[in-house]
Amino acid sequence: MKIKEKAYIAGIYEHPVRRAQGLTIAQLHADVALGALEDAGLTLDDVDAYFCGADAPGLGGLTMAEYLGLRNLKYMDTTETGGSSYLLHVRHAAQAIAAGYCQVALITMADCPLAKKQGTALSGVDRSSMPDLPFAAGVPGMPIYGYAMVARRHMYEFGTTSEQLAWVKVAASHHAQYNPHALRQEVVTVEDVLQSPMVADPLHRLDCCVMTDGGGAIVVVSPEVAAGLKQPKVKVIGTGEATKHRDGGFMDISYSAGKWSGERAFAEAGISVDDIHYASLYDSFTITVIMQLEDLGFCRKGEGGKFVQDGNLISGQGRLAFNTDGGGLCSNHPGNKGGMTKLLEAVRQCRGQAHPLLQVKNREFVLAHATGAMMSSYHSAGTIILQAE
Fold first, then answer.
1. Which of 32, 140, 226, 243 shows the greatest Cβ crowding within 10 Å of its Cβ?
2. Distance of alpha carbon 138 from the chain centroid
3. Which residues does the UniProt record annotate as the domain Thiolase C-terminal (predicted)?
């Protein structure tokens, strides 16, 4: 189902908390749902489709539908692919709207691993019976080992350096200083990153994303509904999803599934990577960003390190502005699902509502991309291209 010209993002909301003591996951889902609907100028009674991942409590969509009082649902989707889930939800919502199944789709995400003292486990997902668990790279629940392997391989294949990885964190920190809700607002240097403790060679502590509580929500609507709403119109014009796995041990970890999801999104949108002036990129680790830049076509394979160095990702300074909210590296990475925040900042940029010092001048086309699970293992990629109208 082609979605170009058939769906709009009308409402967004990011929970301001980073440590949610005293709040349940259901409460966080409700907070972000109401915030996004208010942003759009809609109410719970307008919602006829609901989307969530495994982070939703109980029976997921069914539990939250009752908790929120969603009485008019015609469509539900509880796709779970880790951090990329919510980009896939936007894609599926746009397809459902284009097919005439619904008109107002609400997508929510929330988690509170800090308040629950849960660590890095993927909320709502039982990993104990995974058939590959005895053969998993690294320690279960510690994805850094898998990403360290990807980084080390990238260094071996292409000569990427720790200094180049550090530039990704530096850019994110330059943006986070302007976000009052960012967990880490201090600007760091390449030297700061390299001098931070080594966690999994070659990744230092500052190469890793923050861990936060919180969440966010998005409202996707039909063109007919969007026409009567207050916010600047943000059209969904291109989407793509893809999966990649270990293929019985023959996996090439020098590229990710983003290679395919990006191609599909750009083909559907009818534009090229040269038309994108802002990109929200999943930043679980600094290497994640470099891999996505290559796989999406912003630079050639192996040239991601050179692309990001010397501040080239800093808004107003470099070749491509990225993650102007500070991203998962500095601002917000709720649990293990940072894809939602990528979408939220992409919409702010497309609306012209990012921080004035970081707002890109040419905002007609923006991109959001996320990877779910681990690049060194099986994973899912989602790419969304938005257009300001």
1. 32
2. 24
3. 240-380
In whole angstroms, what is the distance from residue 61 CA to residue 56 CA? 7
Largest CA-CA distance found in the chain, in angstroms, rounded:
56
- Any idea what DSSP says for residue 197? P
Nearest to 313 by CA among 191, 176, 179, 168: 168
Whole-structure pTM value: 0.94
Query: Whose CA is closest to 44, among 52, 55, 36?
Result: 36
Strand partners, 240: 383
- The set of residues, in sequence order, having a beta carbon less than 8 Å from that of 66 and lying 6+ positions away, is none
The contacts of residue 134 (CB under 8 Å, 6+ apart) are: none
Two tokens, residue 102: 């619904």
The C-alpha atoms of residue 221 and residue 9 are separated, in whole angstroms, by 6
pLDDT one-digit tens code per residue, 203-238: 999 999 999 999 999 999 999 999 999 899 999 999
Q: Are strands 75-77 and 321-322 parallel, antiparallel or unpaired?
A: unpaired
Pairing outcome for strands 321-322 and 278-281: parallel
The phi-psi region of residue 210 (left if phi > 0; otherwise alpha if psi is between -120 and 50; otherwise beta) is: beta
Separation of alpha carbons 311 and 356, rounded Å: 19
Are β-strands 214-221 and 104-111 bridged in parallel, bridged antiparallel, or unpaired?
antiparallel
* CA distances from residue 269 to 183, 343, 346 in whole angstroms, order as listed: 34, 17, 16
Q: From 289, 313, 286, 305, select the one nearest 192 (Cα to Cα).
A: 286
- Name the E strands within the chain: 8-14, 49-51, 75-77, 104-111, 198-200, 203-204, 214-221, 234-244, 278-281, 321-322, 365-373, 379-388
